[in-house]
Amino acid sequence: MATTATSWLAKDASVDGSIHIAAPILQRKRLYRITKRCFDIVCSFFALVILSAPMLVIALVVALDSPGAPIFRQERLGLNGKPFWIYKFRSMRLNAEENGPQWANEQDSRCTHVGQFLRRTRLDELPQLYNILRGDMSFVGPRPERAYFYRKFETYIPGFSNRLMVVPGLTGYAQIYGKYNTSAQDKLLLDLLYIEQQSFLLDLKILFLTVKTMFTPEATEGFEEEKSKAINKISRAEEKETVSA
Asked: For 237, phi and psi rounded to 5 degrees?
């Protein structure tokens, strides 16, 4: 059963400006984990077979659009901080991080013309079906990040690494209710909300909303309202528990 109290929700900022977030309560659901993994294997395999031709076309278009390999790989952190190589269709020009790692944004000037379309429709993520088949990732879960950003965010959001408690995913709460300009703190709160409430039905709902977002980009404009509803609802529940205690 999913928990309703959000013990991890930050209430106050410390004197140094950092926000402390405790680890979420992770429910040990053996049947859920087995079902989820079976779903990931079967669906990612058939998706790779069905989408192999469109993916080859996308790879060709990327290669013709700008210099460089069509497939981009980067080291990310997975379950319990284990590193793995994530694969994407290249959406940025070569040497996009010549000045060091940078957080991508919606109107990123480093993107190629084709890359902007791929990122907007999220087609650049299709090669990650291979990561899902391998077990590096799942269809649903917190998006994997680089070790560099984990170290960076931990300095002012202690608890950011709690996202590593579960297998990272292709999509999640932060992707359907967030945008490129959504703060790391807000994305973290949404990820932790998913970790505490995760279930197979919730995963199916998130997948459905992800597909909806891909075909109706304006759906992401409802982030602030939807995110506020989700977090405020559980915040009120926690306040009632505190008053009754």
From this structure: -65, -40
* CA nearest to 59, candidates 118, 105, 110: 118
Q: How many CB atoms lie within 10 A of CB 75?
A: 12
Q: Tell me: the pLDDT tens digits for 60-94?
A: 999 998 888 999 999 999 999 999 999 999 988 77
C-alpha distances out from residue 142 to 67, 90, 168, 230, 243, Å: 31, 21, 5, 17, 32
Alpha-helix runs per DSSP H in the chain: 30-65, 113-121, 128-134, 147-154, 173-176, 184-197, 200-215, 223-244
Burial 8-22 (b: 16+ CB within 10 A, else e): bbbeeeeeeeebebe
What is the dihedral angle through the alpha carbons of 228, 229, 234, 239, rounded to the nearest 10 degrees?
80
Distance of CA 167 to the CA centre of its chain: 11
Q: What is the pTM of this model?
A: 0.77
| Backbone phi, psi, residue 171, to 5° | -150, 165
